[in-house]
Amino acid sequence: MKDASPQTIYLSDYTPFGWQVADVHLTVKLAPKATRVVSRIHFQPNPNAPAQDFFLHGEELKLIHAAIDGTEVTPELTPQGLRCDVPSGPFLWETEVEIAPAENTALEGLYMSNGMYCTQCEAEGFRKITYYPDRPDVMATFTVRIEGDTPVKLSNGNPTDSGEGWAEWHDPWPKPAYLFALVAGDLVNHPGAFTTMSGKEVELNIWVRPGDEGKCAFGMEALKASMTWDEEVYGREYDLDIFNIVAVDDFNMGAMENKGLNIFNSSCVLASPETSTDANFERIEAIIAHEYFHNWTGNRITCRDWFQLCLKEGLTVYRDSQFTSDMRSAEVKRISDVIDLRARQFPEDQGPLSHPVRPESFQEINNFYTATVYEKGAEVIGMLKRLVGDEAYAKALDLYFERHDGDAATIEDWLRVFEDATGRDLTQFQRWYSQSGTPHLSVSEDYADGTFTLTFKQETPPTPGQPDKAPQVLPIAVGLLNPNGDEVVPTTVLEMTDAEQSFRFEGLSAKPVASILRGFSAPVVLDRETSAEEKRFLLAHDTDAFNRWEASRDLARGCLFDMVTEGAGPDTAWIDALEQVIRDGDLDPAFRALMLALPTQSELAQMLHAKGITPDPDAIHAAAETLRNAMAERWSSLLPELMAATRVTDRYSPDAKQSGKRALGNAVLSLQTRLDGGKAAQAQFDAADNMTMQLSALSCLISAGAEDAALAAFEQQWKDDRLVMDKWFALQVAATKPETAAPRAEALTKRPDFDWKNPNRFRAVMGSLAMNHAGFHAKDGSGYRLLAEWLIKLDGKNPQTAARMCSVFQTWTRYDAGRQALMKAELERIAAKPDLSRDVSEMVGRLLS
Ligand code: BES
Ligand code: ZN
Fold this sequence. Notes:
Layout: E1 9-10, E2 19-29, E3 35-45, E4 54-57, E5 62-68, E6 71-73, E7 76-78, E8 81-84, E9 91-99, E10 109-113, E11 116-120, E12 140-147, E13 152-155, E14 158-163, E15 166-175, E16 182-185, E17 188-195, E18 201-208, H1 217-234, E19 242-248, E20 255-256, E21 261-265, H2 278-293, E22 302-303, H3 309-327, H4 330-349, E23 361-362, H5 371-388, H6 390-404, E24 408-409, H7 411-422, H8 431-434, E25 440-448, E26 451-459, E27 474-481, E28 487-496, E29 500-505, E30 513-516, E31 525-528, H9 532-541, H10 545-566, H11 572-583, H12 589-596, H13 601-610, H14 617-634, H15 638-645, H16 656-676, H17 679-687, H18 691-704, H19 708-718, H20 722-734, H21 738-749, H22 759-771, H23 773-776, H24 782-795, H25 799-805, H26 817-831, H27 838-848
Parallel strand pairs: 2-12, 18-19, 19-21, 22-24, 25-31
Antiparallel strand pairs: 1-23, 2-3, 3-9, 4-8, 5-6, 5-9, 7-8, 10-11, 12-15, 13-16, 14-15, 17-18, 20-21, 25-26, 26-29, 27-28, 27-30
Helix pairs in contact: 1-2, 2-3, 3-4, 3-5, 4-5, 5-6, 6-7, 9-10, 9-11, 12-16, 13-14, 14-16, 15-16, 16-18, 17-18, 18-20, 19-20, 20-21, 20-22, 24-25, 24-26, 25-27, 26-27
C-alpha cells in the first residue's frame, strides 16, 4: 500500500526507542514469490526512553502470525508497521511474515537479481523483510538461518553451521538492522586471506556469478591493501573470521557496507583490462576501501539517527580519499575531488535542493545520500584536520574509537572528541554542519614598506529555509612567491572566523604574488580579481599543484566567459602558457592530463548565472568547441610528439603511472581528432587491447561524427558483456553533438537490450543525456521531455533511482524563461503522476518550491 500523506521527520523530534533488543533470530525460508521470514526477538524496556506505544516498522509484509512469550497476539496493522500491547517487562516477540522477492523491483529489502537472492537494507529496507524497530540506534546481535536450495547462502558475521538446504550465521557484533544482509544463489568465489596486525587469520571471498571469476583479482588486492592501510594509518583491525564481498547486477547504489558481507554493484567490483577502464579500476579500488573502512566508521560506531548520516559517510569518504592519495598521487586526487565537488555539490548547494551537511528534516531519507552529505561532509573533516593539525587529528580519532565503540553516535559526540583532544572550542566550527550554502570568499591585497596584507570577506548567499548566514571558520592556506618565482612564505594556514578579516606578512623585500586557498583548503567560491598576467605567473611557478591547476582553470574560465559574453577569440596567451606545462616531461602525466581538460559547460553556466548573465547552453557549447579547436591548431606539431611520448609498451597495469600516461595520451588524442577527423582515433581503436584505449578512441570517433563502423564493431565484440554494453550505451549519448543527444537516447531506449529496470542501464542512457549539457538543454525541450517520461515510468518500479535522477533538474532556474518554462512543465507533469512515490514527490516538491 502507498503512503497517502508523506510525513516530514525532524531532527529535533528525536526520541529513543522504548525497548532494547537483546538478540534477533531470523529464519528465512527462501522462495521467489513466497519467502517466509520467522523472527524471534528478545525485547526489554529501555530505561532511558519515555513511555510510548510498542510500534514496529513493517512495509509490504503479509503477517502470518505474531506471538508474545508463546501466546498468539493480534497487532493493529498500518501501512507503516504494527502496534501491539506488550508486557511491562522483558518478553519474547515472534512473528512469521511472507514476502515476494521476485516481485521486488525497487531493489530495497530482499529482492532477486538474475536468479540470486540479495538484500539492501540501508536506510530503511529491513522493514520490508520483517517487523522491526528499523532505526540505527537499535543495535542487536543477529543469528540467521537460511533455508533454500541455492548452493551458496551467506549472511553477516561468522558461519556457524550448515547442512543440506540450510546454513546458519552468527554476528557477534551488535548492529542496527540497516547492516543486515543475506545473499543466496549459484555463486562462485575468488578466495583470499589476510593476517591482521594481531595475528588473526581472516578468510576473504569475492562471490560472483559463474563466468565472472576472472574479474575478481584486482578487487581482492584492493581489499587487502585497504585492510593493511586501515591498520597502519588508523590502527583499526578487522573483527570477524571472514569477510565476504558479493557482486550483484541489479543494485541502486555503488556498494553497501553490511557487516562482514559487503554487497557491490557488479560495476564497482568486477574488473579486467579488456573490459574496464583505468577510471573503473581506480573507482573499484576506492569503493572497496570505502565499504571496508565503514567497518569502523559506520558499523562499530554507527549513527544515532539518519540526520547524522555524514558522521559515517563524510568520514568514510574522507578516509577513502586519504587511501587513494596514498596509493596513487595526492595532488591528482585532490584536483579530481575538487572537480567532482564543483560539478556535483556546488550546484546542489546553490539551488533549490540545498541542505546542510546535517539536514534537519526529511520526508524520504534516501533523498539525502547527497553530494553535500558525502563530499561536503568529507571537506568539513579535511578542514578540521587542517585546523588542528595531523597529530591532534590522530589523537582525536583514537579517542573517538575508544569512547564511542559500540555506540550510535552524533555529530555532537564527534566534535566533542576533537574539543577534548585539542582543548579547542568548536562551537563556531559546528556551523559547517548546520548552515547550508557555499560561502563566497573575496580577497583584496595591499603592499607597503615590506608588509603585505590580505583582507578577506566571506558571505554565504541565502538558501532554502536559511535567509541569514553567520560567518564560518575558514582555514585559508596561503603561500607567497617572489616576483622571480621563488617561494618566500611557504604554505601557512590562516584561520578566518569573522565576516571580514585581515592577515599581515612582514619583512618582505618586494611585493609578492599570493597563492591563495592552496589545496582548496575550504569548500568556498573564491572571488579574486587578479590579472591574467598574475594567473599565468602562478600557472608557471606555483609550488602548490592544486593552485597551479586552478590558475589555468581560472584563465580558461575567463577566456570562455569572454568568448560567450563578448564574442572574444580564444586566449592564445593562456594556450601558450599551458603549453609549457604540457611539454614538461618532469611533471606527472596524470596532472598534465587534468590541465588539458576545460571547465565543464555546466560550470560555465553556473559562473554566468552567478554574474547575473543568463547562460545560453548553445553559446557555451560553441565557445568550448572553438577553444578546443584553437588549442589543437596551435599545438598541431606538439600533439603527435606527445602521443608518442605517452605510449605504454609494458604489459597493462591499472596503476597510477601507466594510467596517467594513458590519460594524457587520450586527452591529446581528443585534440588530434579535431585536426585529422578521427584518423588517429580509428587507428587506436583498431589496435586497442584494453578498454581504456578502446573506449577513449570510440569517444573521439563519436565527437568527430565518424563512429558508425567502430560502434558496430564494439557492439559485436561486447554484446554479451552487460557492463561493457553499459559503456556503449552511455558514450553514444554523452559524447555526441548536442542536437543528436536526445534523439539518440530515445532511439537507444527502443532497443530490446535497453533493460530499463536495471539501474546501471537506465543511468547509462538517461544519466548521460543529462551530462550532455547543451543536448539535455535543447531549446525545443526534447531532452527534458524524454527524461521526464522515463522518470515517470521508472517511478512505478524503482522510486529510489528515479528520485536520485530528479536532481538533474536542480539548476532549472538558471536558464532563460523559455527553458525554465519547459523544465517547470516537466516537473509539474511528474508531480501530477497518480501514485507518485514519496521519494520522487519530495524531490519534485523541493525542486519546484
Ligand atoms: N552506505 C552506502 C550505500 C548506500 C547509499 C545505501 C544510499 C543506501 C542508500 C555506501 O557506503 C556508499 O556510500 N556507497 C557509495 C560509494 C562510496 C565510494 C561513496 C555509493 O554507493 O555510491
Ligand atoms: Zn558509505
